[in-house]
């Protein structure tokens, strides 16, 4: 589509009750990103309220009409996806605006291939719009969905905003609390100090806002005490009400004043006593303004881990708590498949936020979900028994998906999946979902199936890795939180089951039959370019990298995405062939990860010739201070890092500077400085580790060694780089 064009969705596909919008871009440096947002507008072009603004602090609508699904890795980068259930959009909503914004003073001119796509409920892409003139703007409206004549249409907009997310939202009637510069440092809490820390930070911001407005600022500590202790603890007599931004407002006038007269000053506190809260500012007539409703904050919420569990009542460590789903008794692969399917589907049905999280990307509407196992469906002379069935009811309509599950490394069978696709098409079902330890690659399906073009009804074939299931459960239970205690307990039990060694749901854990021959061929220098076994290893490596993103992201509660520096739209097969030829020539497998909050790109190199894994990160040198003070400052930040960490000084012009281990550099920081006046541009930090020999995920395996190397580097090195 070109800028300004519009098209009716029903003319493109009959399956547009739910659609999937994807926003994507490419960062030449590998560390550029943006955040998506959605606004629901009425006929006047304004939001009905601040709740119609969906962004990182408000990612989903209660009615399921909008859900920000987060980023999904693609062949040339990643795509931020938004699910819309258009049948659930309230009738008073006339238009839906889809936008994205950058942060930290950056603009879209630093990104390339900025575009939006739209797919129907089956996952088929219907349209694409590339934003060509994104230069110095920090926010862009990509497009909008709007109603005309009883149907939904899409318009390619491409309008930029130099004022960022806050300016864009304000134009549509959202009342923004724009504290993006200060709230990141204020909205923090961890462990037992979470509640008090958040309360105090809110009070400090309220004091600053009140001072800017020329009003008397309340004492933050007294406001916090009044909020905790309730009425009767301060000098005023009205009931105290905490507003959304932490300002305490009095419910009535001070009894010691008369209407129309200024309020009397509060008496001075007696020595040794704690002063009460200062009354809220009053209007000239003596009335108190009504409490202000909470406003959306553009500063991202900080993730806090749950508090530590209470001390167990067990006599010793050999006692094990009872589990909802026992795992140690599992013996055969069939037992694992049956139990894993039943456990997963049961929790999806009982925990709506979890079930919705897994099915929204597959085109399922938001509604009442029921799940079934071992259902018998007719198929010629031999009835078929899919492992499970998912049904979602919305406004009297049913969305149905058949589920085929594999565990413990078992491969999906093409003939079995083909039969389920035929059954789904014949019965009018919407999807077939496969679940296994394998990781699907875009452009390289796990199972090849034939689609009968004569059938009017189309069925979507989607794959879900057990690693993705674990990742979504971790995000909900450990980082985002679940409001219902029973739901939280069910998710915790599911997570325990998935991570148990006997469940068979451990994700990708085998580099394939080509791994040993390729490794031997590299060592013997007998592997030639064009060898198909090298391509198999490259595909297995890409699956492993994607799984590492899920496992690390689930533990951190942050987005972890692979970095692809190839131009968007490049042929995935051609890219993998180039990587396979490089593997044959140099014996190297490489990957890069972008982690939210990290100061740089985390790089991973596997050198099959030396048998070494190298994890590294490049960080810029501080702008202020003398070279020696910069070096000392870095060593102080790395006080808890491993002694075998390699530190290399990066110099202007790309030249490498002095290098050494922390063990050697700690007593002699001056050894990090180059000779002469060459300017230091940054530092490269690296850890080396021997890689496993076997192809699998055993203790001595390659996959286990890669996983341990990435997690060790992040937890022992990268986390310390955020400290001042």
Structural commentary:
This protein is 26% helix and 23% strand. With 724 residues, the chain is α+β, with helices and mostly antiparallel strands. The strands form 5 sheets. It has a 7-stranded antiparallel beta sheet. Helix 3 crosses helix 4 (220-229), helix 8 crosses helix 9 (485-499) and helix 11 crosses helix 12. The longest helix is centred in the last third of the chain and has 25 residues, at 532-556. The radius of gyration is 29 Å and the shape is globular. The protein starts with 5 loop residues before the first strand and ends in an 8-residue tail after the last helix.
- Low-confidence stretches are 180-281
Question: Major beta sheet, specifics?
Answer: 7 strands, antiparallel
DSSP strand content: 15-25%
- Average pLDDT, rounded to a whole number, is 79
Q: What is the rounded distance between the termini?
A: 47 Å
Give the % helix. Answer: 25-40%
Task: Please work out how many helical segments DSSP would assign.
Answer: 15
Strand order of the largest sheet: 19-20-21-22-25-23-24
What would you report as the Rg, rounded to the nearest angstrom? 29 Å
SS content category: alpha+beta
Overall 3D form: globular
The count of DSSP E runs of length 2 or more, i.e. the number of strands, is 25
